[in-house]
Design a protein that fits this description.
Number of helices: 7
CATH architecture: 3-Layer(aba) Sandwich
Radius of gyration: 22 Å
Number of domains: 1
Organism: Caballeronia sordidicola (Burkholderia sordidicola)
Helix content: 25-40%
Subunit structure: Heterodimer of an alpha and a beta subunit.
Cofactor: AMP
Structural class: alpha/beta
CATH superfamily: HUPs
CATH class: Alpha Beta
GO molecular function: electron transfer activity
Bound molecules: adenosine monophosphate
Protein name: Electron transfer flavoprotein subunit beta
């Protein structure tokens, strides 16, 4: 059986960037900050490309919802090995529910059998889009996948849970979200970056999908975590125990 795979990739602040809260407390400052593909989405693309290379998948389509610059993220996904890309262009702040609705509209159009997302985007750490998408599309879901095996119209997913590994079997079509240990994404090579420039990248507008993307959540305030106060050195264990009792009150 050959299947079509849809992978959702988000452009986020690079994981190495230390973000700063804006002075007015309305959010974090991402002006002039390095942006990259969300790390869990790189794992999602890698998994889809491996399925394609193994002959299990016939086509890997990558999709991103966001500003024009998200094209760069899609080109990276194409360089990893995806076949074609779709940008759902929007300059709005797209919250997880809005993205899930957009992806649902795209599923209706493209009819993929497997939809892979990251378990969370490292900018807002929502961990919601995959779950909401599965609910909206009425599809089975397996979140935090650490192993994926597709066979005979089913997908078997292993997930690490407290104290063990859970095995789920879902009928296709299905939604999967990736955990860190699913695979190690390949390095993107220069020849593949060049090849990716020739692969198809289609841009569609939110309006074309007829989806209401207006925000449902309002951020009231964003603040830096409180600064840690300075520590102190004690001369011996006896004093340490004394301080823990009297000052920290943990004993
Ligand atoms: P979140 O629910 O925001 O933590 O995101 C979980 C996953 O949903 C991400 O790892 C992506 O696979 C997908 N996703 C979230 N936002 C977008 C977006 N704007 N465009 C494409 N995929 C997205």
């Amino acid at each position: 059986m050959s299947i079509k795979v849809l992978v959702a990739v988000k452009r986020v602040t690079d994981f190495n960037v230390k973000v700063r809260v804006k002075l007015d407390g309305t959010g974090v400052d991402i002006a002039n900050v390095k942006m990259s593909m969300n790390p869990f989405d790189e794992i999602a693309v890698e998994e889809a490309v491996r399925l394609r290379e193994a002959g299990v998948a016939t086509e890997v389509i990558v999709v991103s919802a966001g500003p024009t610059q998200s094209q760069e993220t899609l080109r990276t996904a194409l360089a990893i090995g995806a076949d074609r890309a779709i940008l759902i262009e929007s300059s709005e702040d797209l919250q997880p529910l809005a993205v899930a609705k957009l992806l649902k509209a795209l599923i209706d159009k493209e009819q993929p059998q497997l939809i892979i997302l990251g378990k969370q985007a490292i900018d807002d750490d929502s961990n919601q889009t995959g779950q909401m998408l599965a609910a909206l599309a009425n599809l089975p879901q397996a979140t935090f996948a650490s192993k994926v095996v597709v066979a005979d119209g089913n997908v078997t997913v292993l997930r690490e849970v407290d104290g063990g590994v859970e095995t789920l079997s879902l009928t296709l079509p299905a939604v999967i979200t990736t955990d860190l240990r699913l695979n190690e994404p390949r390095y993107v090579t220069l020849p593949n970056i060049m090849k990716a420039k020739k692969k198809p990248l289609e841009t569609i507008k939110v309006e074309d999908l007829g989806v209401d993307v207006s925000p449902r959540l309002k951020t009231l305030r964003v603040a830096e975590p409180p600064k840690r106060s300075a520590g102190m050195k004690v001369s011996d264990v006896k004093t340490l125990v004394e301080k823990l009792k009297t000052e920290v009150k943990v004993l």
